[in-house]
Design goal:
Layout: H1 2-19, H2 24-38, H3 46-60, H4 68-74, H5 83-97, H6 107-118, H7 124-139, H8 141-198
Helix pairs in contact: 1-4, 2-3, 2-4, 2-8, 5-8
């Protein structure tokens, strides 16, 4: 199970970074924004939010645009498997930030309640609204306040990591291409000389 999941994550998240021919900043901004949006309690509308941010940036500040494809891919950091843990961390962080020490609840209780909320028989855009309203009613401000440090920190760290990663990858690729070109040139240079010596 872990190997196929790791392969899928690499294919969906890492490969788009490495295949990009744009400047590292352009791709890294996409990673940072995708991760920042993924670390909000808005699973289900994160991709439309990223598309909206991208459109707004293109309109207001086109020289600071980012890779939409990469940003959309990185919203998958939070998914159906990670949502209970991530939301629980948001809730407890929010409670700590707001000084609500008596509101710290056990994970099992939280996960059961979240399952009940997400298990409601609604579909489409209506589902997003119902889930959002139910979570706001159940956990309120702490859930949304608690996501802020994770969103800001996660977005910034992922931007820095991906920027370094892309630069190192591209530098290594340039070195490989230079070595390959040097070997090819050396083979071309020694070819005629070998032929002359044979005569």
């Amino acid at each position: 199970m872990i190997t196929p999941l790791r392969r899928l994550m690499r294919y969906r998240l890492v490969i788009p970074i490495l295949r990009g021919k744009d400047l590292p900043d352009y791709t890294a901004r996409g990673v940072g924004i995708g991760v920042a949006v993924s670390l909000t309690p808005l699973v289900g509308v994160q991709m439309p939010i990223v598309a909206g941010i991208w459109s707004l940036v293109r309109l207001l500040r086109p020289n600071w645009t980012f890779s939409l494809v990469v940003a959309l891919a990185w919203t998958w950091v939070t998914n159906v498997f990670t949502v209970p843990i991530v939301y629980y961390v948001f809730l407890q962080t929010g409670n700590l930030m707001l000084g609500r020490w008596d509101n710290l609840s056990a994970f099992e209780h939280f996960a059961d309640r979240l399952d009940q909320i997400l298990g409601q028989d609604v579909t489409g855009i209506m589902a997003v609204w119902v889930y959002f309203a139910a979570m706001l009613d159940e956990w309120g401000l702490p859930l949304f306040v608690g996501c802020l440090p994770w969103m800001i920190g996660g977005g910034w760290l992922s931007y820095r990591w991906s920027h370094v990663y892309i630069e190192r990858f591209k530098a290594a690729r340039r070195e490989r291409q230079a070595r390959k070109a040097a070997r090819k040139q050396a083979a071309l240079n020694t070819g005629p000389a070998t032929a002359d010596n044979g005569r």
